Amino acid sequence: MYGNTHHQFRLNEENGGGTVATNRPERVTQRMIAELAGVSQATVSLVLNGKTDSTTRIPDETRERVLQVIRDTTYVADPAARRLAGVGNSLIGIFTYEHAFPHESSDFYTPLLTGIEGAAEQIGVDLLMFTSAPVVQGRRRLFHENNRLRLADGCLLLGREMDADELTRLVDSNYPFVAIGRRDAADGRIPYVGVDYAAATARLARLAIESGHEQFYYLHLSYDAESTRDRKEGLNSELTAAGFTVDTAVTDGSDLAAAWQRIRSARPTVLFVEDAGHAEALRDLAVADGVSVPAELSIIALGERTRPSGHAVDFTRLSAPREELGSRAVALLDHIMNGTGDSTELPHQQLVSCTVIAGTTLAAPRVGSI
Amino acid sequence: MYGNTHHQFRLNEENGGGTVATNRPERVTQRMIAELAGVSQATVSLVLNGKTDSTTRIPDETRERVLQVIRDTTYVADPAARRLAGVGNSLIGIFTYEHAFPHESSDFYTPLLTGIEGAAEQIGVDLLMFTSAPVVQGRRRLFHENNRLRLADGCLLLGREMDADELTRLVDSNYPFVAIGRRDAADGRIPYVGVDYAAATARLARLAIESGHEQFYYLHLSYDAESTRDRKEGLNSELTAAGFTVDTAVTDGSDLAAAWQRIRSARPTVLFVEDAGHAEALRDLAVADGVSVPAELSIIALGERTRPSGHAVDFTRLSAPREELGSRAVALLDHIMNGTGDSTELPHQQLVSCTVIAGTTLAAPRVGSI
DNA sequence: CTGAAAGCGCTTACAG
DNA sequence: CTGAAAGCGCTTACAG
User: Fold this and answer.
1) How close B364 gets to chain A, by Cα (Å)?
2) Average pLDDT for residues B284-304, to the nearest whole number?
3) Cβ of B349 and A79 within 8 Å?
């Protein structure tokens, strides 16, 4: 299909000037600039780094001459050399436990990355995505044979679940990092920016109680993630305080039809579902089963789709500020890496609050509805 | 901010541990590894770079000891230093002319990044996203004050449009890079992986002709991008060959209602629209105007939405293999960076072919339909 | 087999 | 004001 382009390129290479023998691009260096401008290499550096230092003042005439040569040659200082010389490499690593970019339907990280990119741009750092760590069984290992974390000045950790031992090892190593999502491991020494799921879930529970519900059902994920525990905790505490209990079941999404049958026989008036996708599926199952939502069954989602799906239903749900999560994580990491350590100290563990969206799937219960 | 690193480091050295004076983690160096393993720094380097050279063979016992220390310390060679010393970092840069991650509705890069990530994982390279270059007026500048391209071994360039001068400068600099999308600049010396829009558009034009259409209208983008020209070229050549002409208009999407009025008075039987989003809008405008699609007006989109939108219409359209584009670009860049230059030479300019999707918006024309 | 040494391109005290 | 020099952390001939 593209066989002929090949030929074109060969021709180009042959007469293009660059020898095939040398892979090494010839780089313009400060020494060359210095020669051309008739100054020392150090002076070029001084001009470039614009030292306004009173002790190191370069006459305008010289400075102009050097700058002119730099312009003419389109010279750019080698970042690697600058970095080695101690100017820092302004590199923030991003380690995702799963693929960072949407594969199949998984699109968990995108909004986080959007926030991260914006913040990275603001503070002028580049982002290093650790894609060289292979994804095995859906997970990347933080510490593997050829760990390259140190390529970056510090690192952001993203993932639903993180291995506690790895996390502990990482804090112990003194490497600056920030987890996205609350992490309890390592005796609370993990710096993170998380979402206050407990509070938001509690508010949602309160809404249901105030609507008159008394029969609760909660279908949550089997993950052992903090975020799952937080939601459960928020729900339980609010319901318990009001004197209610809640039926609970776990799903990984593969058995939703069966789950629906169990829910149905439990006869709740309101159903809390951790995963937004599951909420959609269950709502469809309910409707297909002749149960109208929310008239006969209210459904509350404890999360939301990353982006609008085809599903038209505007669930009563909670909405995590994912972009903000990303940008705040960058800010915290930056602070940890370069912070002055003085009174402006940022808390190393932050929870951002979560919005409750009223939606249309919560209504007052109808007695004996299901 | 970094000016006093020297000083800070001294402090650290003096008391042998983490001083309060600096948050800066003390970097593990080969010298420390060497000390811990009881070998010379050069030996550590030798072990790391796995020289199987017969002249430089290190006893397994020593090698193992060194490797163990490296594992324990999670040491990783400083990429900047490696670069300076003349080796690669297994680092592929990604330069996007706009924000890489979806901001607002723009989601142009995501599928490309998905493909790139997969390929990067396969060949074991990390991805360096150049987010430090600020986006000004929606565009990032490749060559700006503090250009850091050289931190990576090579770079992928992504963007609808690229500045020809910048591209020329980049080839001239001998820095290995691959553009995603066909680029004509620099006398055809730009390595790229592009999409064969011309061929696919021509096929679509043929379909329309075969359906009996004779009145064509083409609404395309005002971008000066190669991809826009390719589509136009594919459409024109096919129509011209069949003895037809085509009405043409440009839009940036802000004036679609007006565009529709003009289209309407031109009375085409088939409307080609470059942008998928515009196609959706125009279809709605047509329907709202009492023109039924495709019975009275066929609409063909020369692109598609990145992901399924709410829009239910299954357009007759072309579909670019964006993930493949990403992964092939990585493969090509890898080849350019590490290629042997022998007979297995990959073409430096590749076009991948584009799928035509039949859809439901192309039908035989009805005489005097509009 | 392994260490000492040169050098990559820069920044920044430190001397003239 | 400006140059000579040390040093950043590494790789790689080159000697032991």
Assistant:
1) 30
2) 94
3) no
Distance of CA B291 to the CA centre of its chain: 38
C-alpha distances in Å from residue A276, one per residue of A161, A296, B174: 18, 20, 49
Written as one string, the DSSP assignment of A108-164 is SSHHHHHHHHHHHHHHT-EEEE--SS-EETTEE-SS-TT--GGGSSEEEEE-SS--H
Q: Are A1 and B351 a contacting pair at CB < 8 A?
A: yes
pLDDT digits over B113-167, tens only?
999 999 999 998 999 999 888 788 878 888 776 678 878 889 999 998 898 998 9
Alpha-carbon gap, residue A115 to A248, rounded angstroms: 34
Answer for the pair B333, B175: CB distance below 8 angstroms, yes or no.
Answer: no
DSSP E strands in B181-245: the ranges are 192-195, 216-221
Q: Report the DSSP pairing between strands A126-129 and B126-129.
A: antiparallel
- Sorting pLDDT into bands at 50, 70 and 90, what band is A315? very high
Of B79, B86, B347, the CB nearest to A2: B347
Contact: A101, B110; criterion CB under 8 Å:
yes
Highest mean pLDDT among A71-85, A327-341, B135-149, B347-361: B347-361
- The type of residue at B171 is V
Q: How far is the CA of B227 from the C1' of C5 (A)?
A: 54
> What residues of A are in contact with residue B99 (Cβ under 8 Å)?
114, 117-118
For residue A106, the model assigns a pLDDT of 58
Q: List the structure tokens of A360.
A: 């249309």
> Measured between CA atoms, how close is A41 to chain B, in angstroms?
18
Contacts of B19 in chain A (CB under 8 A): none
Indicate yes or no: CB of A101 within 8 angstroms of CB of B81: no
The continuous run of DSSP H or E covering A47 comes out as: helix A41-48
The alpha carbon of residue A196 is apart from the nearest alpha carbon of chain B, in Å, by 24
